[in-house]
Structures are given as structure tokens and as C-alpha cells.
Write a structure and sequence with these properties.
The chain is an alpha/beta fold and 183 residues long. 25% of the residues lie in helices and 37% in strands. The chain has helices at residues 62-74, 114-122, 130-135, 144-152, 162-169; strands at 18-27, 33-40, 43-50, 53-55, 84-96, 99-111, 136-142, 178-182. The model has no long low-confidence stretch (mean pLDDT 89). It holds the Pfam family NUDIX. It comes from Trueperella pecoris.
Length: 183
């Protein structure tokens, strides 16, 4: 039996598993960005850093989905109204779990206080799926200069250009929706 939730990835007109998602760029009071390190179940050496988030459930808005996914992955529950944006509209095509997949993502900004940061660090309320337990390796707060340096040294960070976008977002949002297509 597969632990991959195929029902969350309906096939599009071109035959690709394709879903909508909500993601969040979470900043602590020091301007550090929360990222998760994951790998492909079939290729454990293929690893990348990414923001919390994931596929939307039926009837869920992207902000609601981002807040729910944040709670599931970190244990921190926040009201979706705290999600600022969307700040990035990303269309992504990628290979994961034996297939090329497509995901249409809206990203939001969330600033957390010290108590919320501590809750994230404790991960006490996290409710990972079986797949997430298998493929998520680490979670940490990144100083953006440090993140830029490790990315320059070959670490994969998604979305492409995240460090530059995050430099602007950590102090607030200028109202501009950035659009990105990654294939």
C-alpha cells in the first residue's frame, strides 16, 4: 500500500497530477525565515529547502490552506486572516514520488512573535502525514545571508529566488504580487 495521497493530486487535461496549494513565508522577530528540508522518497540524496505549506482541501482558500498546513507541519495554529498577501503566485512543474507533478501555489507572509516561534520549535502539536514523516528531514530558522551562502554552495532552495524575495518580505509587503513559473 502506498503512503502517497494520490487523491490529493487529480489529473489535469494533460494527464499530470495537478493541485492548488497555499504556502507561507514565516519570519521570526529577528527576520529569520522558517524552512523545511525534505527529500524525494525514491531519491533520498535529492534534498531541498522549502516553505511550510501544501495542497488545498475542498472549499479551502489558499490562506486557510497555508494556515492549516503550517499547523500540521509545525504545530502552530494561526488565524488565516494573519496571512499577508498573496505575495507570490507560483506555477511549478517538478518530479516527486515517481511522477512529474504540477502545483499552483499562492504564498503568504506571516510574522510570528517569540512565543509562537517557541511553539514552532517545540513542534508539540504537529500532525505529519505518513509521507511527511518519511520525507521531511529538518526544520530551521535561516538568517537570509546564511541561506544565500548555502544556496550559492549548492543547496537547493525553492521557490527559485526565495532569498531575494524574502529580503523584502521580512519587513512587510509592498502590495506587489510576484508571478513565477518554474519547470
Amino acid at each position: 500500500m502506498s503512503i502517497f495521497p494520490e487523491h490529493e493530486w487529480p489529473l489535469d487535461a494533460d494527464g499530470y497530477p495537478h493541485r492548488a496549494a497555499g504556502r507561507c513565508a514565516v519570519f521570526n522577530s529577528r527576520g529569520q525565515l522558517l524552512l523545511i528540508l525534505g527529500h524525494d522518497a525514491d531519491k533520498p540524496d535529492y534534498r531541498w529547502w522549502f516553505t511550510p505549506g501544501g495542497g488545498l482541501e475542498a472549499g479551502e482558500s489558499p490562506a486557510q490552506g497555508a494556515a492549516r498546513e503550517l499547523a500540521e507541519e509545525t504545530g502552530l495554529q494561526v488565524d488565516p486572516s494573519r496571512m499577508v498577501g498573496p505575495v507570490l503566485d507560483r506555477r511549478s512543474t517538478f518530479y516527486f514520488y515517481r511522477q512529474t507533478r504540477k502545483q499552483d501555489e499562492l504564498f503568504f507572509i506571516l510574522h510570528v512573535n517569540e512565543d509562537e516561534e517557541a511553539a514552532i520549535d517545540a513542534r508539540a502539536g504537529a500532525q505529519l502525514t505518513e509521507l511527511e514523516k518519511e520525507v521531511l528531514d529538518d526544520m530551521r530558522w535561516w538568517n537570509l545571508d546564511e541561506l544565500a551562502a548555502v544556496e550559492n554552495d549548492g543547496e537547493l532552495v525553492f521557490p527559485v529566488g526565495l532569498v531575494d524575495m524574502a529580503r523584502g518580505w521580512r519587513h512587510g509587503w509592498n502590495g506587489e504580487l510576484i508571478r513565477a513559473i518554474e519547470e
